Amino acid sequence: MVELLSYPFMQNALLAALLVSIAIGAIGTLVAINRLVFLSGGIAHAAYGGVGLAFFVGISPLLGAGLVGVGAAMLMAWISFHQRHRSDTIIGVIWAVGMAMGVVFIDLTPGYSADLMSYLFGSILAVSRSDLLFMALLNVVIIAAVIGFYRPLVAVSFDEAFARTRGLPVRALYLLLLVLAALMIVIAIRVVGLMLVMALLTIPTYLAERTSQTLVGMMCLCAVYAFGFCVLGLGLSWFLSISSGAAIILTAAFGFLGFLLFERLRSST
Amino acid sequence: MAPVIEVENLTLWRDRQKVLDEVSFQLSAGSFLGVIGPNGGGKSTLLKVLAGLLEADSGRVRILSLPPAQAGARVGYVPQETGFNLAFPITVLDVVVMGLLGQKLNKAERKSRAMAALERVGIAPLASRRIGTLSGGERQRAFIARALCGQPRLLLLDEPTANLDPKAQEAIYTLLKSLQPEITIVLVSHDIAHLIGYASEVVALNRRLLHHEALPSEQIHCAQDGHVCEVELLGALLKKAECG
Ligand SMILES: Nc1ncnc2c1ncn2[C@@H]1O[C@H](COP(=O)(O)OP(=O)(O)OP(=O)(O)O)[C@@H](O)[C@H]1O
Ligand SMILES: [Mg+2]
Description:
By secondary structure, chain A is mostly helical.
């Protein structure tokens, strides 16, 4: 077990898990509490278009995913200001179009076929040093923004109308929230992939929501849960030789079920 | 002294429907205005305009001589909807502190102001509870504390006593009365009996403003028979609003 940690790829994987957990804790919490998980799923899948585009023009896939993800986040923010009651339809459209664009760009890229799955389902064991650096950079942006705008972000999340009466720029804060969510998704893509990011957005946040008193507590707990699931899932995937992203998600799902059972038992006694 | 609220020919459309139609009234400092009217009569809409959340399509609205959007810091608003995410992990104290957003205060000052507001509404012992664990009446008081802690000159309350038991209702009316005359109050309510006892004037609103009755102070604390008479008068006013 200890010698596993001496492999560089394992060290990278653990660092990646840590980075993704911090991002999920900091911004995934706000996403979940604002009930924006579906919208974030839309951003994640649209970001796949960015991965394809990046392969096509020959830039880093994470950079491509980041640019397109942020673009999609801005588009969705704009749409929800103007077409709030149709936003689920539009999220669905952006979701599907992003995926389709990704596939088409990759079709058009000569000689490329491998490694695509890793963006859909993650491959934490293949994270490189430069990936880590990029993820750390995005994390710094996320954390700085969450700390810097903590009170306004919480106020808007809790009661948008009241926040407006206090003179807060509600739309700008909403846009900020979605852009940060896009950055978080880019961080998560390497670890669990964009298909599975939804689970990491819902399960640790749900568990944290049920077990903390304050939002800061929820953020910290959420990061701890997410890291726990990543590490356990990573171990499982190593010893059972199964895909890491799927192993992480299934571990989280078992944690979720276990918690529900525990709550059921506790409330019935 | 300029009136706290000046509304002139306020008209507002929503979904091609005239929700407020040429509404005009003024309210002077220290008044307690009760707003009655049928469901859908535009009461919440009017309050949102006064709070700067909705803009008039035509007409002129001034709060303390300022457009509502600029007067926000002097106005406390307690909304009708309680559609908050009750699972939100936030303490009562932190909710109340939100009332101080936009004011430059340090953490200790924010906390002591919020605690003072909680004292004022009588739920200081609940400060560290999660907001979702409070009863309806306690939560309503927390939202009043949030509106109060910014030290407003004008307090707008949208049916704060709906769903409360008679004792809790009484407590909220007593609390509001104790804020007077420093704070001018606008209260939307269907509770005519209480408005008689506490409001200094009443308007009935059903898209148009039907009446603006000043209740002379000697009538507010009137004898039992006079009291009944006033209730009937307001009931008739409300009926007229419903038909009109
Ligand atoms: N967001 C909205 N979009 C379109 N129409 C709206 C909206 N909000 C309110 N309305 C309409 O405006 C009218 C007035 O609504 P308002 O909420 O002001 O009534 P109210 O007097 O507060 O009623 P209640 O006693 O039920 O609270 C209603 O006909 C309502 O359908
Ligand atoms: Mg209303």
